[in-house]
Amino acid sequence: MKKLFAVLLTLALVLSMGTMAFAAGNGTITINNAVSGADYNIYKMFDFTPIAGDATKGRYTVVDGWANFLTGEGAAYLKVNDEAGTIEWNGEETDARKA
Prior knowledge:
Layout: H1 2-21, E1 46-51, E2 54-62, H2 67-71, E3 78-81, E4 86-89, H3 95-98
Antiparallel strand pairs: 1-2, 3-4
């Protein structure tokens, strides 16, 4: 009986860890006016950490490797407010951003 309980408890722990990994779900990215045969790359520049279990509120932090860009030429477009944990757009408004 003890072995069965140990196996069931282990199984419950493993399954609960798996459901946390799927909590975020899948997203999509749409590229309008894409050029046929062109390659498009996606880069992760920020991490988002939710606060108090609310996935809509949290803090952004810069991913390693992007700090120099964001303080260099990227500063013309993005401003990182480390204190507030926010990212602000400095560049010009484009049709894509207005939509």
